[in-house]
Specification:
With 378 residues, the protein is α/β, with parallel strands linked by helices. It contains 13 helices and 13 strands. The protein has helices spanning 16-30, 66-75, 77-82, 91-101, 125-136, 147-152, 194-206, 223-233, 261-269, 281-288, 302-314, 316-331, 335-363, and strands spanning 2-7, 34-40, 49-52, 55-60, 85-89, 110-114, 140-143, 181-185, 213-217, 237-239, 255-257, 273-277, 297-299. The strands form 2 sheets. The chain has a 7-stranded mixed sheet. Residues 365-378 have low confidence and may be disordered.
Length: 378
């Protein structure tokens, strides 16, 4: 099968969607399928075409004018015509794809992956309408999380678990450090709860008299205000910015302060206890309503996080039990399983489309054709 992924950004860009598509592509390739990626070049100097790990990458000039992008798509429409499956990541890219190439590409082979949401609470009605509209314009839909259906009110065809890369069995085991530190990996934005984690460290240091340290890996709009907040509190929090392979830093601490789906599972695979904070009901469902949820500890306040950490420090056997159960769960995550789930959906939908087309041809129906007016009597 020839599979084409259409995404906003791809390697060397770093992010959850980028990693998801990369690992899914590699697994599909290992299963014997041909994979291409069409992504936006978000800055000047990025190669317009290259091959990485056997996957062809084509970049359209997303940083240039819409006219230049449109011309690129006209010249490269054969990429989309040659594909058996076109998988588009997220609604905004599907809308962009439709504007650029919609009329010339059969929607019977276009599929949508919703990797997440804008995390705006309450969810605007316009987002719900866009989700419904986008579902009707594709052959099939996959969701990267059960919470998406609850809030966008649209049902997916599949909602597979992510894999882990490297897999848990390929990770080098690192002994748990002393329970005096945590690592945060993620965006520095209001919806991630980063302020909550920092305030929890302040309580651990002052209220519980714990020598506790937090290392933050990530960047965002709150970087400057959080730095000033930490300086005012005088607590041991280090900001390291966005770094490649930040998930590897989980091994440096006993606790993982994270709320991102992929980061949660990567911390579990490294035998670190996940403490997740949520700031609204949407993020509560994101954290507490998924397959990984039974294996983490979650709350919606800084005081709650501080109490969780204090309890886990005081009860090492209880902490180890949770960590061990989470590790068993993480071992079950394989990108190959995720890839086979997508293949099952694609093959089923494509076969169904072929059957409908065959039935139309068999019946001799001229659906979509302009009638011959010369044969119509006056």
């Amino acid at each position: 099968m020839k599979i084409l992924f259409f995404v906003h950004r791809y390697w060397p860009s770093v992010g959850g969607v980028e990693k998801y598509v990369e690992q899914l592509s590699l697994s599909l390739q290992e299963l014997g399928h041909s994979v291409r990626v069409v992504a936006g070049a978000t800055e000047d100097g990025q190669p317009v075409h290259e091959v990485r790990d056997g996957i062809e990458i084509f970049r359209f000039p997303a940083y240039r004018s819409p006219i230049r992008c449109r011309w690129w798509f006209v010249r490269h429409q054969h990429l989309f015509g040659d594909a058996d499956v076109i998988s588009v990541s997220n609604t905004h890219m599907l809308e962009y794809f439709t504007r650029m190439l919609g009329p010339v590409v059969s929607r019977r082979k276009v599929f949508l992956i919703r990797h997440g949401m804008a995390c705006i609470h309450p969810v605007p009605e316009s987002h719900i309408k866009r989700a419904r509209r986008s579902s009707k314009g594709v052959a099939g839909v996959a969701h990267d999380g059960l919470f998406i259906e609850n809030w966008l009110k649209v049902s997916p065809d599949i909602c597979p678990n992510q894999g882990l890369s490297p897999s848990v069995d390929d990770l080098v085991s690192c002994p748990e450090p002393a329970p005096t530190s945590a690592v945060y990996v993620g965006r520095l934005e209001p919806d991630t709860g980063i302020r909550m984690y920092i305030d929890a460290v302040h309580q651990l240091v002052t209220k519980y008299q714990r020598p506790f340290h937090l290392d933050v890996y990530g960047d965002g709009s709150l970087r400057e205000s959080l730095t000033a907040h930490v300086e005012a509190l005088g607590i041991p929090v280090g900001f390291h910015g966005r770094v490649p392979h930040a998930q590897e830093r989980f091994k440096d601490a006993c606790f993982a302060f994270v709320d991102g789906r992929m980061a949660i599972q990567e911390a579990m695979g490294r035998r670190r206890l996940v403490c997740a904070g949520y700031v609204d009901p949407l993020k509560r469902d994101y954290i507490c309503g998924e397959s990984f949820s039974p294996y983490l500890l979650a709350t919606d306040t800084a005081d709650g996080i501080a109490q969780i950490v204090e309890d886990m420090i005081s009860n090492p056997l209880k902490r180890q039990l949770i960590v061990d159960r989470a590790y068993v769960y993480a071992r079950s995550l394989r990108w190959e399983i995720t890839a086979r789930s997508f293949l099952g959906m694609w093959e089923s939908k494509l076969a169904s489309a072929a059957m409908r087309t065959g039935w139309i041809r068999q019946k001799g129906l001229n659906i979509g054709k302009v009638p011959d007016r010369s044969r119509v009597r006056a």
